[in-house]
């Protein structure tokens, strides 16, 4: 599913995808001189427009809408659950802002 920011349009793509770490391919997506470590390569079989009603009703793009993220588990919480408590999710979440600042464009 692909969302188009600021609109109710949603595009559903059926097909296959693979992750590639190919240097030349990753370098072709460089932004501000930084290439991603991996890219997703899609083989598209079908493309559909989905009904926009759910996005419109959710008022998804309204900046005045309260964030619902506080009601969701954090990425660290999800990793704890996925690893049967073998992962320090609290440390992961706490270190995320610094990691993001260093590794995101």
Question: What can you tell me about this protein's structure?
Answer:
The protein is an alpha+beta fold and about 100 residues long. It has two domains: about 1-65, no CATH class; about 65-105, no CATH class. It is about 30% helix and about 25% strand. The protein has helices spanning about 25, 55-60, 75-80, 90-105, and strands at about 1-5, 10-20, 40-50. Strands 1-2-3 form a three-stranded antiparallel β-sheet, with no helix packed on it. The radius of gyration is 18 Å and the shape is extended. It starts with a strand and ends with a helix. The mean pLDDT is about 90.
- Beta percentage is 15-25%
**DSSP summary, beta strand count:** 3
If you average the pLDDT, what whole number results? 88
The largest pleated sheet is described as:
3 strands, antiparallel
Our Rg estimate from Cα atoms comes to 18 Å
Helix content: 25-40%
Q: How many H/I helical runs?
A: 4
* H-E order: EEHEHHH
| Integer tally of domains | 2
What structural class results from the helix and strand content? alpha+beta
The side-by-side strand order for the widest beta sheet comes to: 1-2-3
Low-confidence stretches: none
User: What is the overall shape?
Assistant: extended
Q: What is the end-to-end distance?
A: 24 Å
